[in-house]
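Session log. Operator J.P. requested a structure for one protein chain; no other inputs attached. Running the standard single-chain path with token output.
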Amino acid sequence: MKKVRVFVTLKAGVLDPAGKAVEGGLRHLGFDEVKGVRLGKLIELELDDGAGDERARIDQMCKKLLANTVIEDYRIDGAQ
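Structure written below.
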């Protein structure tokens, strides 16, 4: 088995209301040095060894299900 990570984040310019809420909460708790928060997702996939062109397959997974490519970017770590 092989683990691959996919990081999904909102594209620059897309509003992040959850990030704003976390930013406000941190400031309320006295962390005034925080000037911005953007939230994202970490998706860990476990793949069979030798599954062929992993990166292309994971790219398809992201485009079809894991990320909304209209408003999100993604980065794949650990695939060949």
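Operator note: Residues 54-66 form the longest helix (13 residues).
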